[in-house]
Amino acid sequence: MALPRFRHLPRIACLVLLTGLGACTAASADSRAMHLPDPALDPAPSQPGEQVAVFAGGCFWGIEAVFDHVKGVRHAWAGYAGGNADTATYDQVSEGDTGHAESVKVLYDPRKVSYGQLLKVFFSVAHDPTQLNRQGPDHGTQYRSAIFYGNPQQQQVASAYIAQLAAAHVYADPVVTQVVPLKAFYTAEAYHQNYASEHPNNPYIVVNDAPKVMHLRQLFPALYKSQESVVQVQLR
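Below the sequence we write its predicted structure tokens.
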């Protein structure tokens, strides 16, 4: 049974309702982990220095937690992409009609982790790319699967990897991930940043997001960094 979307309540206020309904279990979270091939196309970035990638795939708490534990990622920020600045607030985005997607901005060092490797993490453990306009218990276009590319090379690599996964038939259902240009990224409210690490016993985190980090450690041991190595930086 899919959980209803409590549109007029913040996700934090829905946690008791989520666990009381009992519709989302650790077993369902486990099913999202996938062993995937490496991207066949994964060139070095055309510009030197640290790079930025932006991903959307459901609640930004879990996506942020996953990428914060990837070696080579300096930091990840929860935020909004795909809509305008004047409606880039949690209350408005949660209504599902602003055009935004809950997204995560990833600042990374391509000498330590490639864009293709980030894509592999995104598709294998961070979310289920076959769910249309939803992710687990969260429903609405603000929870859509999307890659917001910052340059033509990112667009090419992301599109090529999706085609590669489709050709390999790694999923039972089609990949619905959008590959769209990044017009702007709006950092979410301060209380959303590092939410999973600061609220590890929160029922929503335990059920939906902690398994993602566990799968990252299991499937990507060479890329995984422990919580002690996660550096907190200021919003930017």
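The chain has one domain: 12-34+46-221.
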